[in-house]
Amino acid sequence: MVPCHPEVPLSSLFSVVIVGRPNVGKSTLFNRLLGRRKALVHDQPGVTRDLNIALLERDGLTVQIVDTGGIYGEREDALLSLVEEQVHVAMEGGDLVLLLVDGKEGLNPVDEELARRLIKSGKPAALVVNKVDVEGHAPRSAEFYSLGLSPVFSVSAEHGTGAEELWDFVGSKARERGLAPAEPPSAEGSIRVAIVGRPNVGKSSLLNRLLGQYRSLVSEIPGTTRDPVDAPLSAGGRDFVLLDTAGIRRKSKTEKGAEILSVILARRSLETCHVALLVLDASQPPSHQDAHIAGLIERSRRAAVVVLNKWDLLGGEERAKAAEEAVRERLHFMPYLPLVRASAKTGRHVDRVLPMTSKVYDRFRIKIPTSVLNKTLADLVARVSPPSIQGKELKIRYATQTGEAPPILTLFTNSKLPPPEPYARYLKNGLRESFDLEGSPLIIKFRAE
């Protein structure tokens, strides 16, 4: 597992989805774009090895590359379902779709169907003709112009020919979309809640239970061009909006397609939420993909609550404690997340979910008076003195809050260098505990004065 890189905000990601029939070279193009470059490439945290979603950081851009290969393996049967699933993933998750075709084998009915569906959708797309290995193979691209997709790129994913031109196009599209980090939604109005998690953990059941339990404001509001449907409700004197309920209910025809979509839809929901509900199946050990989606939440700098669903299947308290310990161990990089035991099926403890969400949201939006912050900081420093840095005693002069949602605290010191990581962690943990920041990220910055 590779650690998150919070300095690259999640909302700055531009998603490129590679589609195409089996054996056209999708995975080879995926690896070409990612692997043989002087770019910083890292897998997103916790992704299972066969889930081909990765990040490419290059030329000042952060691009998420999604390979739909493997949704149906490499079988040639059930091609209509394959087309539908790939288009489904592309429509839901792609800012740009690359339709990859095989220049050596020539035009295929599946290519034509994929192109027709992409054109009909209006999704930004390009045609990539693969296996154009040498200059003499260039005429292989000609017949594919009849598909009606443009622009058309001739590449050899195996040898790298044409890959630079393709990347230049992807980069230009990413810049056109604009990559300014999305600000959290305004504090005015409702608390925006994203329900995220891997397939089959009970997201739909939790959604339906929440909507059935709190009916005072339940209506459906059409969303963006992807047509997610946001559902408002009220509970405990607070207004909430559950985001993209259509996406939560939507099912994929394959396990791989469902895994890919769970990641992509989580990322999109996290861009506009205040609080994420990370739903886990308490009856199963937490998985790599659970940790991966938690990593997305950490990267997005959103508040979060872990909902341990299917709690009714655990039985005794001993198994329950073991399940919580396993979750804490798997999500060790986010120890501040609160756990709520619940059963969406029976309704048990579901009434605790939104009150905890409300509490976490308030911590996410906290404003700490400067005088209170500095008294707390002084107590922490008095308890454990700062270490020396390069032989010079570190002095922390004062602190102030410089941001919220999540809270950002800037500590002014006499050093251009930050304190050693263990001491910085001590201060962060102490401040978190003092201000009860359960469920909210906390950003600590050091600045020389």
Could you walk me through the main structural features you see in this protein, from its secondary elements to its overall organization?
With 449 residues, the protein is of the alpha/beta class. It has 3 domains: 10-177, P-loop containing nucleotide triphosphate hydrolases (Rossmann fold), CATH 3.40.50; 191-363, P-loop containing nucleotide triphosphate hydrolases (Rossmann fold), CATH 3.40.50; 370-448, GMP Synthetase, Chain A, domain 3. 34% of the residues lie in helices and 22% in strands. It contains 12 helices and 19 strands. The chain has helices at residues 26-35, 79-93, 109-121, 163-177, 203-213, 245-249, 255-272, 288-300, 317-330, 353-364, 370-383, 421-434, and strands spanning 14-19, 40-43, 53-58, 61-67, 96-102, 125-130, 152-154, 191-196, 221-222, 229-235, 238-242, 275-281, 303-309, 339-341, 388-389, 392-393, 396-403, 408-413, 443-448. The strands form 4 sheets. The protein has a 7-stranded mixed β-sheet, with helices on both faces. It has a 7-stranded mixed β-sheet with strand order 9-10-11-8-12-13-14, sandwiched between helices. A hairpin with a 6-residue loop joins strand 9 and strand 10 (229-235). Helix 7 (255-272) runs parallel beside helix 8. The longest helix has 18 residues, at 255-272.
> How many DSSP helices?
12
Side by side, the strands of the main sheet go 2-3-4-1-5-6-7
- CATH architecture descriptor name of the largest domain: 3-Layer(aba) Sandwich
Mean pLDDT: 81
Strand content: 15-25%
The span between the termini is 37 Å
Structural class: alpha/beta
Give the biggest beta sheet: 7 strands, mixed
CATH superfamily of the largest domain: P-loop containing nucleotide triphosphate hydrolases
Could you name the CATH class of the largest domain? Alpha Beta
Rg over alpha carbons: 24 Å
Overall geometry comes to globular
CATH topology of the largest domain: Rossmann fold
